[in-house]
Amino acid sequence: MKTENVIEAKALTKKFGDFTAVNKISFEIKKGEIFGFLGANGAGKTTAMKMLIGISKPTSGQANVAGFDVYTQTENIKKNIGYMSQKFALYDDLTVRENITFFGGIYGLSRKRIKEKTQQLVSELGLEEIKHQLVGSLPLGWKQKLSFSVSLLHEPRIVFLDEPTGGVDPITRRQFWEMIYKAADRGTTIFVTTHYMDEAEYCDRVSIMVEGKIEALDTPKELKKQFKVDSMNDVFLRLARNIE
């Protein structure tokens, strides 16, 4: 049973001058949960994530991630999380194997552990034949799956994924979500932002942001029931119309 909160936010706010990008959002996320952070482009999803991972200081409000405060313990947060940005994060001019080794070193793994993790990752992803190829030569879908796997190298408590399936084909998107399920089954908490409303169906719970505010938060099943619709896309459309 999932009971331990690994992320807690209360009235978390981020302002840029007179513009409020994130407006007093509150939520809790439990260990091993797949939490979808949904909203249209520009809704404030990435800004909120940057506060949680310790690279942007909130204007006000409270939050802790993996038990650490987002104001005063950002270095501890970074050691306990994995992160995959919407822009591909690995190095195109290094091979698959070199990228794994490089990031393993950044995450502080021993040489022995890096070797073990490299073999495991190459085997799991079926990369044996291309492990010496430059990452820049790989299709986008393979790059994204490799980037996700690398974000898990140091076995973080939480992985933040910012639009991880943007631009990839539907089959690759499905494969990527299968990887997410496996990580969650091992107890890793997944915090994923997306503007693909169909991906909300894959999450344990979802929040929907509209213009910097969380306007809905529940399981996909309960949200569809609440709004009396058949899909999460319809939930979003109904919510957007209500806001207008």
From TrEMBL:
Topology class, membrane: Multi-pass membrane protein
GO MF term (any one): ATP binding
Domain called ABC transporter: residue spans: 1-236
Keywords attached to this entry: ATP-binding, Membrane, Nucleotide-binding, Transmembrane, Transmembrane helix, Transport
PROSITE patterns: ABC_TRANSPORTER_2
Record InterPro entries: AAA+_ATPase, ABC_transporter-like_ATP-bd, P-loop_NTPase
GO cellular component, one term: membrane
Localization, UniProt: Membrane
Protein name: ABC-2 type transport system ATP-binding protein
